[in-house]
């Protein structure tokens, strides 16, 4: 009679959602062979050779019969090599040649890729997999030693690290203990460059301070070498550290993307993602074959996405930002299903005013048509979602040689204080920054005085802003108010918010 042994569990990841996968092995009569079933991808089809070699090279006998490994539920698309360890254990249990302690399988998930020599290699997505395992009721997890630090971020789960298949088998025989997390001195994350390095550009510096305080989007235009990139690179230094829940979410995204730093398993500082201006739609938003992976917009979640020389990027690529900017998440449809990734980031755009981009604008040789066409890639709907537009001018020679700018630490204190005021105001409603608040909630529950609303009403009548622009001006005015520790935006705050939006940018 064929013998079916189940209850070896792993976790399957589909986009940003994980769910348990039960691995069953059947060893029956018939021509010798090895079949893996259950809606598997190419890397899992190759698992047959990895598992067979790993079992043999670990000193165990691979059954010379018909071996079938089934991954259930069958309708769930399974991808990646993280099922190798579970498949190997299921086969060894089904062979009944070893007196394994099957009680250790209860409530345990096994994750890991197997090398041909039996080593357990690291896999991506361990953090979201274990968070889902904890929610599903599992109490123990066996993961690759290389993923121990990342796995240890999940509370209320007994985490053990495995170096090899043989070590896991000996643990189930009661002859050996698995590895635990050993305390290591984790180096601190690299500090962001200091704003004190930037000379002059008072308007741009203040605009970025306002943007950081409220999570608003910024467009900086100016001649080459004026300091646009230098300013953008220093924005992470004025942002507050991530809250614990935010840090876990950001870390989970980078774990799925395979970009989690080895020595920093928990990302506590806002990420700074700066793709090249030749970036494709797939690289920016996410994608790939099978199930879509996170793109730059998701890896920048709760941080900064900087597009330098944005006017050189493709118009369709830039317009692809509209939905993530509006909703704070990106939905991707691929062959194996839909994936939804969070993507609430602060967008920084930098562009030259024209193709020739001289140091002084009076030296420009471009026609008016060429200048408009150059920035025309930034469509109206995209620009309507940009809260702050800054035109930067070269600093004077005297200022360049003598002025020392304000440090990032001083600016960060004001930004943190403004964010805390916004957080306390919006916390009952689940919002973290002013940029996340729907305009309807602002108008209905936090109405401004008629005097403060007068400039916005005038701009609407003149057709200088859209209804969306009016809502964004309201959010921006609340941020300006928070920076000065005000109770409610006043007419000057609203006027300043409109000034940042209603300026000539083409």
Model description:
With 506 residues, the protein is of the alpha/beta class. It has 21 helices and 18 strands. It has helices at 42-45, 47-57, 84-95, 126-135, 148-151, 165-172, 202-214, 228-233, 244-257, 281-285, 296-299, 315-319, 322-327, 368-375, 380-383, 397-402, 408-426, 439-445, 450-462, 467-483, 491-501; strands spanning 3-14, 17-28, 33-37, 66-72, 108-110, 113-114, 120-121, 140-144, 158-162, 218-221, 272-273, 286-287, 293-294, 304-307, 329-334, 337-342, 346-351, 388-391. It has a 5-stranded parallel sheet. A 4-stranded mixed sheet has the order 1-2-4-3. It has a 3-stranded parallel sheet with strand order 5-8-9, with helices on both faces. It is elongated and about 80 Å long. The N and C termini lie far apart (78 Å). The relative contact order is 0.10.
* Continuous helix count: 21
The helical percent reads: 25-40%
Query: What is the CA–CA distance across the termini?
Result: 78 Å
SSE-based structural type: alpha/beta
Short note summarizing the structure:
This protein has 506 residues and is an alpha/beta fold.
What key phrases describe this protein's structure?
alpha/beta, about 500 residues, 4-stranded mixed sheet
Task: Reconstruct the topology from this structure.
Elements: E1 3-14, E2 17-28, E3 33-37, H1 42-45, H2 47-57, E4 66-72, H3 84-95, E5 108-110, E6 113-114, E7 120-121, H4 126-135, E8 140-144, H5 148-151, E9 158-162, H6 165-172, H7 202-214, E10 218-221, H8 228-233, H9 244-257, E11 272-273, H10 281-285, E12 286-287, E13 293-294, H11 296-299, E14 304-307, H12 315-319, H13 322-327, E15 329-334, E16 337-342, E17 346-351, H14 368-375, H15 380-383, E18 388-391, H16 397-402, H17 408-426, H18 439-445, H19 450-462, H20 467-483, H21 491-501
Parallel strand pairs: 3-4, 5-8, 8-9, 10-17, 10-18, 11-14, 14-17
Antiparallel strand pairs: 1-2, 2-4, 6-7, 12-13, 15-16
Helix pairs in contact: 2-3, 7-17, 7-20, 17-20, 18-20, 19-21, 20-21
């Amino acid at each position: 009679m064929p013998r079916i042994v189940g209850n070896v569990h792993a976790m399957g990841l589909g986009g940003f959602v994980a769910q348990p996968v039960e691995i069953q092995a059947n060893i029956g009569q018939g021509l010798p062979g090895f079949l893996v079933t259950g809606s598997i991808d190419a890397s899992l089809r190759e698992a047959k050779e990895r598992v067979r070699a790993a079992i043999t090279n670990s000193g165990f006998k691979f059954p010379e019969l018909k071996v079938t490994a089934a991954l259930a539920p069958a309708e769930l698309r399974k991808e990646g090599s993280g099922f190798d360890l579970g498949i190997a254990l299921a086969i060894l249990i089904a062979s009944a040649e070893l007196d394994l302690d099957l009680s250790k399988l209860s409530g345990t998930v096994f994750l890991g890729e197997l090398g041909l020599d039996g080593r357990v290699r690291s896999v991506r997505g361990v953090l979201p997999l274990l968070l889902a395992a904890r929610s599903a009721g599992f109490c123990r997890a066996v993961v690759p030693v290389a993923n121990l630090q990342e796995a240890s971020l999940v509370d209320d789960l007994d985490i053990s690290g495995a170096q090899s298949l043989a070590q896991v088998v000996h643990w189930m025989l009661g002859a050996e203990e698995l590895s635990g997390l050993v305390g290591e001195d984790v180096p601190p994350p690299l500090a962001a460059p200091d704003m004190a390095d930037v000379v002059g550009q008072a308007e741009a510096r203040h605009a970025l301070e306002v943007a950081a305080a409220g999570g608003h989007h910024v467009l900086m235009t100016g001649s080459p070498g004026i300091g646009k990139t230098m300013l953008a690179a220093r924005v992470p230094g004025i942002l507050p550290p991530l809250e614990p829940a935010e840090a876990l979410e950001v870390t989970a995204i980078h774990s799925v993307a395979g970009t989690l730093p080895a020595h920093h398993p928990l990302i506590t500082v806002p990420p700074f993602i700066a793709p090249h201006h030749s970036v494709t739609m797939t690289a920016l938003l996410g994608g790939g074959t099978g199930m879509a992976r996170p793109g730059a917009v998701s890896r920048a979640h709760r941080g900064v996405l900087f597009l330098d020389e944005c006017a050189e990027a493709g118009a369709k690529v830039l317009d692809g930002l509209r939905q993530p900017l509006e909703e704070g998440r990106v939905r991707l449809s691929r062959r194996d299903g839909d994936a939804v990734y969070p993507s609430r980031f602060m967008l920084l755009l930098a562009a030259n005013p024209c193709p020739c981009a001289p140091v002084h604008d009076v030296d420009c040789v471009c026609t008016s048509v060429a200048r408009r066409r150059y920035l025309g890639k930034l469509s109206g709907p995209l620009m309507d979602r940009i809260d702050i537009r800054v035109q930067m001018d070269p600093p004077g020679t005297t200022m360049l040689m003598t002025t020392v700018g304000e440090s990032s630490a001083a600016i960060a204190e004001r930004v943190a204080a403004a964010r805390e005021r916004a957080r306390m105001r919006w916390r009952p409603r689940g919002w973290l920054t002013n940029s996340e608040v729907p305009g309807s909630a602002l108008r209905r529950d936090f109405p401004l005085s008629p005097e403060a609303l007068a400039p916005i009403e005038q701009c609407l009548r003149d057709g200088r802003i859209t209804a969306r622009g009016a809502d964004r001006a309201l959010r921006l005015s609340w941020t300006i108010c928070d920076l000065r520790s005000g109770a409610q935006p006043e007419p000057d705050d609203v006027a300043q918010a409109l000034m940042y939006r209603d300026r000539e940018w083409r």
